[in-house]
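Why should sequence recovery work at all? Because a backbone constrains its sequence more than one might expect. Tight turns favour small or flexible residues, buried strands favour hydrophobic ones, and helices have their own preferences. The token representation captures these environments compactly. In the example below, the structure is given first.
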């Protein structure tokens, strides 16, 4: 389902994604990198990943427009097959790839895929965070590597359907602004580890049919349902909101409001939840701290009572 549309229909639209400013800046930088038929981008791929090949003059940039994600994915597959067979530098600008996720196709759109003269394929990710003196923020590079690894897996799925099977390179090209300028610079990123981890995670995912089977009978999340019916449908499925959801899930605002209304301690963060053992609501925690409920032998209850006693002592001292 489209969780963004669901969140809006529930009255808690997500603020998930980039700020408008970052979005515009990122688009302007990407347009610059891909200007003139991707000349600069191809120069960077040649320089950083394939210096032994002929320089990428007159590279091909096939048209990839088609109707819907399935149409675009089919067009991409055709273009990649033709480019590999032609043995010429080719830039695929925003191709569409399909990856099997828990038995369902997920459509993915890398910034670019480059086909080398030897027929191999490279994933290119264009980011707007700066590369200072040749290195960028490791957390951001890590996130870009994980993203590129998913594209590599999708390309490998596609390549396996072609004959001969073109090699998919496990070093992606990360293109970023150089220092504080708007000039592009690039670095090759080895994504073998991220690819292996993602592949294992995908293999372990519960099949979508099994998840659907576990849902209550007749439950439906169509965003055009009346708000009350939709809210009841979402509430019928347990959720364990944590602040980490804010940067990862479109339903975060809805789940946060629900979690706060329930007084769930997970809203304070998973580490807090882990420290509190069997106490799952703020009301339980306060009652335990006041000595009204809870087993004094429970380390969480004992720690809460000690904290409450210290707080009372501190307040008394401050009032004296
Ligand atoms: S609990 Fe978190 S991950 Fe699950 S639906 Fe809610 S916001 Fe999304």
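From this structural description, the recovered sequence reads:
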């Amino acid at each position: 389902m489209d969780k963004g549309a669901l969140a809006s229909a529930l009255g808690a639209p997500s603020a998930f994604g980039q700020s408008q400013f970052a979005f515009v800046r990122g688009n302007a930088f990407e347009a610059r990198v891909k200007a003139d038929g991707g000349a600069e981008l191809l120069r960077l791929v040649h320089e950083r990943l394939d210096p032994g090949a002929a320089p990428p003059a007159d590279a091909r940039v096939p048209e990839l427009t088609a109707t819907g994600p399935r149409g675009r994915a089919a067009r991409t597959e055709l273009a990649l097959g033709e480019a590999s067979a032609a043995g010429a530098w080719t830039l695929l600008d925003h191709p569409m790839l399909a990856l099997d996720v828990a038995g369902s196709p997920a459509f993915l759109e890398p910034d670019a895929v480059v086909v080398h003269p030897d027929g191999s394929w490279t994933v290119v990710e264009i980011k707007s965070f700066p590369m200072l003196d040749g290195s960028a923020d490791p957390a951001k590079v890590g996130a870009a590597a994980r993203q590129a690894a998913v594209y590599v897996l999708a390309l490998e799925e596609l390549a396996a359907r072609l004959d001969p099977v073109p090699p998919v390179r496990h070093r992606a090209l990360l293109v970023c602004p150089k220092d504080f300028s708007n000039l592009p610079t690039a670095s090759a990123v080895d994504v073998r580890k991220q690819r292996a981890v993602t592949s294992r995670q995908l293999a372990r995912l519960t099949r979508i049919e099994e998840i659907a089977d576990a849902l209550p009978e007749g439950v439906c999340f169509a965003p055009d349902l009346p708000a009350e019916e939709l809210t009841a449908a979402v509430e019928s499925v347990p959720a364990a909101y944590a602040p980490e959801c804010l940067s990862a899930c479109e339903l975060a605002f809805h789940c946060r409001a629900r979690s706060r209304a329930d007084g769930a301690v997970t809203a304070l963060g998973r580490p807090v939840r882990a420290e509190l053992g069997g106490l799952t609501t703020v009301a339980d925690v306060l009652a335990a701290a006041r000595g009204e409920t809870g087993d004094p032998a429970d380390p969480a209850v004992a720690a809460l009572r000690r904290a409450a006693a210290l707080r009372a002592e501190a307040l008394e001292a401050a009032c004296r």
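A few observations help interpret the result. Strands lie at 90-93, 97-101, 104-108, 112-115, 121-126, 171-177, 184-190.
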